Amino acid sequence: SSRLIFSLEDLFPMAKTKKPSERVGKSPRMGALKTSASSMNADNRTNARTHMRRDKATINRLKMYKSGGKAIRNSEGKIIKAAQYQSSVASGTMARIEPNRRWFGNTRVISQDELSKFRDAVITAKHDPYSVVMRQKKLPMSLLTVPSVKSGERPLLLAQPFENTFGPKAQRKRPSLATDTVETLVAAASSKQDQYSAADDSNLRSTEAPDTRPLVRDAIFSKGQSRRIWGELYKVVDSSDVIIQVLDARDPLGTRSPHIESFMKREKPHKHLCLVLNKCDLVPTWVVSRWVSVLSKEYPTLAFHASVTNSFGKGALINLLRQYGKLHSDAQQISVGFIGYPNVGKSSVINTLRAERVCKVAPVPGETKVWQYVTLMRRIYLIDCPGVVYPSGDSETDIVLKGVVRVENISDPADHIPTVLARARTEYVMKAYNLTEPPKDHISFLETIAVQSGRLLKGGEPDINTVAKMVLHDWQRGKIPYYVPPPAAPAAAGEAAAASAGPHVTQRLSAIPVTAAFSKEELHLHPTEDPEGEPVDEENVADDDSEAEAQDDESAAKGESDVSGAGEGDKAAAAAAAEGKGEVEEAAAASAAPAPAA
């Protein structure tokens, strides 16, 4: 029976196959998949369904971590295998260059005629405040920018042409010398020495001490000028696609920063810059209309009244931001930065747009310490910035009346009251403090208010410093009616936005709720005319977050994720923005009201 026990391998010896590892003198085929189930095997298919296997880049990085960046050596200390990224090529080995057509030809070719036409179009767009050049990273801006030549200097190619400097026709001019011989040089030097006068030499330093020296200012008058504050400003400018400079409607030019505007033109020409006149409820309507007309010739300008419950300009500003978002349709979202002087209402504007208190606000300057991000919509983000003051020639009184300094920190507040009485009209001051007679001077004015309000010291002496701080507080908060008279309105200022092909918004300035106690004659000194066209309906803007998000989601389902329904005017403006094509596109702008007849 033992002889009958056999296997199929004994009957069919050729049917037995050997595994690849048992083959003698043969290696696996090149390019064959490795069947190892190790996690360090890039060809592992065991976890293909769960997508948990590692790719080759991850495996190579882990091997580098495991080796510790060290080479493998033998017992004698010689390197058998070099560490990763440290291997050397043997002498005489030729490196291989990737076959790319960019190495062998110029793929970006443009004719001079097309370049000159495009340069003229770019220059025209830069001079138009309602236009902006889009996608500048994809354009040869170095070829399109006209080189600036300083006055009194000739371009180098005009002074020395290329063909006269290099090549076979090069000409070397003989230098022109004032003297030909050494004797004439000595004579000229001696004559100049005889004519020299130390009194007329401006290069000599005077050793005499000056009779007067400038007074040292208190540290509080340098608020908003620290390096930290300017660092916050530049972070906001770098992170924003749209910059909104908030101005005080009572003094727009005084709270405007020409330094930031020139910096934007020079360093950030691809970013949009707009102006917002806040606190327009503290001045007459015709003043707002004229300031909007004047400033709109330089930048898009909007009138605004920051209030969570009763605002003005909210619909127009949201409409403008949506149009900017439509222009940047290739970006996931846009960021809008708010900059300006302290206490002009940057945080209040953001709270008005959100219809809730998302930024900390206070009627005193310096409440915002650092920049902060606030979400307005899914594609629009707002950035709040601390107030920044550029060093200028303003006096201490100008700094106090602009609201840059906190009144409670001023050591001598009574010194600034004469300027308050000079700028404000006497009848408004008398009405604000219930005075029966006009004040003779600032001391008698403060004493009268101290007696009426009971601000007395020991012995019945009036507390002048406390009353002076009260008056400065009332000035900063708008209790005393005041405004800087606007210049004469330009003839065609209101037609700037209407003539532009870009989208724009209109405002009904006659609907501004004026809260300042101006006289009827001054309120209607110049009748305000509304701009032509359909005004933006402020009531159509959704104040509730849930309603705004629902509108935004509904528009996103239709392929318009950045335009939410806030009325037919917004949809028409977004459709107009979508029509802009080409490399030079029109930017969104706020139109100005036409100049009223004086």
Task: Describe this entry's structure for a reader.
This protein has helices spanning 8-11, 56-67, 112-127, 141-144, 156-159, 162-165, 182-195, 227-239, 258-267, 285-295, 314-327, 346-354, 396-401, 417-423, 426-432, 442-453, 464-477, 496-499, 520-523, 545-557, 568-578, and strands spanning 72-73, 79-81, 131-133, 242-248, 272-278, 301-303, 334-340, 372-375, 380-384, 504-505, 584-586, 589-590. With 598 residues, it is an alpha/beta fold. The strands form four sheets. A six-stranded mixed sheet has the order 6-5-4-7-9-8, sandwiched between helices. Mean pLDDT is 75; it is low at 1-8, 20-27 and 529-598.
Main β sheet profile: 6 strands, mixed
Poorly predicted regions: 1-8, 20-27, 529-598
Q: What is the helix content? A: 25-40%
Q: For the CA atoms, what is the radius of gyration?
A: 38 Å
Q: Specify the overall morphology.
A: extended
**Oligomeric state of the chains?**
single chain
Number of strands: 12
Distance between the termini: 131 Å
Mean pLDDT: 75
Strand pairing plus helix content: what structural class?
alpha/beta
Helix count equals 21
Relative strand content: 5-15%
Strand order of the largest sheet: 6-5-4-7-9-8
Q: What descriptors fit this protein?
A:
598 residues, extended, 21 helices, alpha/beta, two-stranded antiparallel ribbon, disordered N terminus, six-stranded mixed β-sheet, disordered C terminus, single chain
Helices and strands in order, then pairings?
Layout: H1 8-11, H2 56-67, E1 72-73, E2 79-81, H3 112-127, E3 131-133, H4 141-144, H5 156-159, H6 162-165, H7 182-195, H8 227-239, E4 242-248, H9 258-267, E5 272-278, H10 285-295, E6 301-303, H11 314-327, E7 334-340, H12 346-354, E8 372-375, E9 380-384, H13 396-401, H14 417-423, H15 426-432, H16 442-453, H17 464-477, H18 496-499, E10 504-505, H19 520-523, H20 545-557, H21 568-578, E11 584-586, E12 589-590
Parallel strand pairs: 4-5, 4-7, 5-6, 7-9, 10-12
Antiparallel strand pairs: 1-2, 3-11, 8-9
